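Tokens in:
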């Protein structure tokens, strides 16, 4: 009987400290914060830090890929393509990442981002809903307001 009495508090302590896989996963907002860094850099015609942010985003997405859904794995694959220091290839890779992030937003019911479309390059991107001004990452400072809010990807 004394062993059972000693085990009950220990089991309660362990049960209270158990972490489930879903508790350890990054919230979609964490992934979108890194995505926003990449967007902001490209919209300002900057490449500095884009590859590093892509790597961080891939790592965050990979930490949850197996446990949540394939949308995270798709984000990780697309984010890994943000390599190099030339702006046009980075923008091309960003278009693929944006599609993956839009699918992630839908898969996780994340409502903090608004989808935009650039008719000139036929590509999408996301911005925080709080941003009221269009900031085109594909044309940057040459055409910063080119694009419009859309409800979904064609």
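Residues out:
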């Amino acid at each position: 009987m004394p062993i059972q009495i000693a085990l009950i508090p220990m089991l309660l302590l362990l049960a209270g400290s158990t972490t489930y896989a879903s508790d350890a996963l990054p919230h979609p907002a964490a992934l979108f914060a890194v995505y926003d860094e990449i967007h902001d850099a490209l919209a300002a015609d900057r490449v500095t830090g884009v590859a590093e942010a892509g790597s961080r985003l891939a790592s965050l997405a990979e930490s949850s890929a197996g446990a949540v859904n394939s949308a995270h794995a798709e984000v990780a694959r697309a984010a890994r393509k943000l390599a190099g220091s030339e702006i046009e290839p980075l923008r091309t890779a960003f278009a693929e990442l944006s599609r993956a992030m839009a699918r992630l937003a839908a898969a996780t019911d994340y409502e903090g981002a608004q989808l935009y479309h650039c008719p000139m390059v036929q590509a999408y991107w996301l911005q925080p809903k709080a941003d009221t001004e269009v900031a085109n990452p594909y044309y940057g400072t040459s055409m910063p307001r080119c694009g419009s809010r859309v409800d979904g990807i064609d």
